[in-house]
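Let us work through a complete example step by step.
Step 1: write down the sequence.
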Amino acid sequence: MAHPADITGCILAGGEGRRLGGADKGLVELAGEPLAARCLARLRPQVDAMLISANRNLATYRDFGVPVFDDAREDYAGPLAGVLGALRRAETHYVVTAACDSPFLPTDLAARLHDALHAAAGEIAVVVTGGRLQPVFALYDVGLADALAAYLDAGGRKIDTWLRQHRLVEVVFDDAEAFMNINTPDELAAAARRLGDDR
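Step 2: predict the structure and record it as tokens.
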């Protein structure tokens, strides 16, 4: 399937991994492969270019073969700092983001978000599963960079709050498990079982 043009993908790998004992979640292995590498393999064919946002082990992430950047902020600002970095660096009109610990993300994620954004003349398209926003899976117009920088500089951190300040398009995906995050050893084990079932 041809992907929509003018989109940069960004893997958000800057989290603290507290529920995994402080591990760098993107580098935690699932069936012998880092989670972020699995996510990258699923998103890369959908976009024109890729970036990775990370706050540690940057050299290891660069081994994945795409540009890597850190938040460049003194305080931990959460995923929105990674989104801002991607909006500033992208040479495309849009950025689509995905969590580094989501190894089953849909292979039509970018296309569906892009189509919905255009149909509704929105600024941001975000995934919804089971009636809940999945805010780290979203497509952004890069023209929002200055507004996001101002929100962060004012102390804003809540991604849902910032999303709702703009023309937001909610895009329903029926397969909630495609967006499963791996935050605990039990969830890692469940992902390994799913991987085995999918083979």
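Step 3: interpret the result. The chain has one domain: 7-198.
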